Amino acid sequence: MALIVQKFGGSSVADPESIKRVAKRIVETRKAGNEVVVAVSAMGDTTDELLDLAAKVTPMPGGRELDMLLTAGERISMALLSMAIRGLGVEARSYTGSQAGMITDAQHGKARIVDVTPGRVREALDQGAVAIVAGFQGFNRSTGDITTLGRGGSDTTAVALAAALSADVCEIYTDVDGIFTADPRVVPRAKKLDRITSEEMLELAAAGSKVLYIRAVEYARRHGVTLHVRSSFNNNEGTLVVNPKEENTWKSRSSRASPAI
Ligand code: ASP
Ligand code: MG
């Protein structure tokens, strides 16, 4: 049995139909015998709409209140996604960032993850449930306040969960088929890459590729998490982002799980 973390961005859960489509995909992964943890972003443009709303009540909303407001977006999508999965007859439970143990520093709007204590997520998996975690949010122990990780931060939530749970792979679902040599919408002959190292991915991200959030790639490299960037619209293999020291992470992880004594 593999442990798979799946991340779905805002465009993958933009409306009820999309949420049901994503739920089906999660259920298929679960029914194939895997343990599944999902990190989900807010629906569609929710985060932008919440920011606009804040700007309409004051020019200075303040970091703490802004984080409280923005994290509501992911709370909506996680609950709806969990309901949709349960509607398909599979047990699912949603968790806020703090419930899932995403501990951060205290910087509102750009917090960094300092620890992950996913006890409740592990417990849900042990009971056969799919765990749905709100992306992009955490909790600071000293202030006791809710934080956000910066725009696009759900990728980091997924990678951090994958690292803390020793997942076999972290699948990042998006609306393109993977990582390309150039933007396929601009350069029609751009080629999809089957495999790339996290070093190369960091270079692409620095050069403007927006497919993966740079902090998430750094986190994956530091913690040896294999990423699989793929489309939520088909079942094609996407692009594997691997870590050179651990070229075949999948194999080395399973051999680590059962050490030869
Ligand atoms: N909803 C947040 C944003 O739009 C986080 C994310 O999408 O990853 O930035
Ligand atoms: Mg978003």
TrEMBL record:
Domain Aspartate/glutamate/uridylate kinase: 3-231
EC number: 2.7.2.4
Source taxon at top rank: Bacteria
Xref: CDD domains: AAK_AKii-LysC-BS (cd04261)
Classification via Pfam families: AA_kinase (PF00696)
Enzyme class, spelled out: transferase
Known pathway: Amino-acid biosynthesis; L-threonine biosynthesis; L-threonine from L-aspartate: step 1/5; Amino-acid biosynthesis; L-lysine biosynthesis via DAP pathway; (S)-tetrahydrodipicolinate from L-aspartate: step 1/4; Amino-acid biosynthesis; L-methionine biosynthesis via de novo pathway; L-homoserine from L-aspartate: step 1/3
Keywords: Amino-acid biosynthesis, ATP-binding, Diaminopimelate biosynthesis, Kinase, Lysine biosynthesis, Nucleotide-binding, Transferase
Catalytic activity: L-aspartate + ATP = 4-phospho-L-aspartate + ADP
Gene3D superfamilies: Acetylglutamate kinase-like
Function field: Catalyzes the phosphorylation of the beta-carboxyl group of aspartic acid with ATP to yield 4-phospho-L-aspartate, which is involved in the branched biosynthetic pathway leading to the biosynthesis of amino acids lysine, threonine, isoleucine and methionine.
PANTHER family per UniProt: ASPARTATE KINASE, ASPARTOKINASE
Family note: Belongs to the aspartokinase family.
Name of the protein described by the UniProt record: Aspartokinase
Native source organism of the sequence: Frondihabitans sucicola
